[in-house]
């Protein structure tokens, strides 16, 4: 059972864990909209890459290798999210069953979540509490402004993603309103 949306998670690990849980639930539980996984994962992956990864690279002895692996996995997830989003929204260029994409995405998200949980645990063992609290606040703030849809062009390209962050976030939030897509109000806090 995922943490409730009406209660702010007290730590970075809890905020990230909640994003993983809700996105996995959207992909695996009957009756859930798989489209909500697009929102959960798009905002989470962007926020993690902007906030957590730069700190992990500097703070952990093997941080650069860990982050590189996470970015490769996130790039694959983003490409599948794009396919899922466009398949469900009726893009005629895409053919094939959505269930295949959902199954592959669910497996990748599980792998990603396990690796990211280890990354956050390593940061918790390394960083002082004040720094962890700052990371949590920055992650929370970034999730609120992050793009809500996948952008495969920026996946795995941190500099390009940073440049496109503000524009992508604003455009995606406007598209969500126009498309009538609801999004959880309190993903991170």
Overview of the structural elements:
The protein is an all-alpha fold. Helices cover 72% and strands 0% of the residues. It is built from 6 helices and no strands.
Task: For the structure shown, list the relevant keywords.
0% strand; mainly alpha; 6 helices; 189 residues; single chain
SSE blueprint:
Blueprint: H1 12-28, H2 35-59, H3 63-88, H4 98-126, H5 129-145, H6 158-179
Helix pairs in contact: 1-2, 1-4, 2-3, 2-5, 3-4
The number of distinct β-strands equals 0
Total of helices: 6
Give the uncertain stretches in residue-range form.
none
The radius of gyration computed from the alpha-carbon positions, rounded to a whole number of angstroms, is: 16 Å
SS strand fraction: under 5%
The description of the largest β-sheet is: none
Mean pLDDT: 85
Précis, in short:
The protein is an all-alpha fold and 189 residues long. The protein is 72% helix and 0% strand. It is globular.
């Amino acid at each position: 059972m995922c943490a409730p949306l009406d209660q702010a998670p007290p730590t970075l690990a809890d905020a990230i864990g909640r994003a993983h849980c809700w996105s996995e639930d959207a992909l695996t539980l009957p009756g859930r909209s798989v489209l909500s996984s697009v929102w959960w994962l798009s905002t989470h992956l962007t926020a993690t890459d902007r906030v957590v990864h730069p700190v992990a690279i500097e703070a952990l002895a093997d941080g650069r290798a860990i982050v590189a692996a996470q970015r490769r996995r996130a790039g694959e997830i983003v490409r599948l999210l794009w396919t899922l989003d466009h398949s469900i929204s009726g893009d005629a260029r895409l053919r094939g069953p959505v269930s295949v994409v959902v199954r592959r995405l669910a497996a990748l998200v599980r792998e990603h979540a396990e690796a990211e949980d280890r990354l956050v645990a390593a940061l918790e063992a390394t960083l002082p509490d004040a720094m962890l609290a700052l990371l949590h606040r920055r992650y929370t703030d970034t999730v609120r402004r992050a793009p809500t849809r996948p952008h495969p062009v920026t996946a795995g390209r941190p500099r390009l993603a940073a440049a496109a962050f503000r524009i992508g976030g604003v455009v995606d939030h406007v598209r969500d309103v126009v498309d009538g897509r609801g999004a959880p109000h309190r993903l991170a806090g």
